[in-house]
Structure formats: structure tokens, C-alpha cells
Design goal:
Elements: H1 3-6, E1 11-18, E2 21-25, H2 31-42, H3 48-51, E3 55-60, E4 65-67, H4 68-77
Antiparallel strand pairs: 1-2, 1-3, 3-4
Amino acid sequence: MSNVLIEGRFVVCAACRYGDLIVCGARHFDKVMHSQLTQMREDKLFEFEKAGRAEQGFIDQYGVFMNREEALAVAKAAGQLNVRRSKTSPERELFSEDLY
């Protein structure tokens, strides 16, 4: 990914994508995200079985989903990585612990 594409973008929060549905939270499958997913399942608002397994990633300030690798490039360019702790493995992917 070129710097032109990531300039000015920043990572906002963790996200899980099920097909076209994106569910957000401070961390992947935290209590906020978990409660959203539970409610959607109970209300039958989305067919998770058809969508399959979630893709974990992040969203930017425009609501654009990024996979873990793209989000790492954006977070690095924006200076968002937490300098007080070591980078979570694997090195080529972003984890919410790398931000805060």
C-alpha cells in the first residue's frame, strides 16, 4: 500500500466483518461487540451462518474496513502505535493492544 493512500487516515476502532455487515468495538469481541452480535442473533437481524466466519480488522475515520495488515500501515503512518509496549505478534498485523 502506498503512503498516498494512507496519508491522513487513522484507525478508529476494532471491527469484525461478516460479508457486508461490520460490527465495531474498542477491542475484537469485547463486551460491547459481543452484546451487539448477541442482539442481532436473537432478533434474527442477520444470518451469521450464511455469512460465515468473521474477518477481524479495523475501521478508519471514514468507516472503511481495513484488514489487520492494512490497518497496521495506516496506524504506523498516523503515529498511533503504543510506544510504551512491545508490538504484538505477528509483526505484520495490527492488534488493538498495539494502539492502547
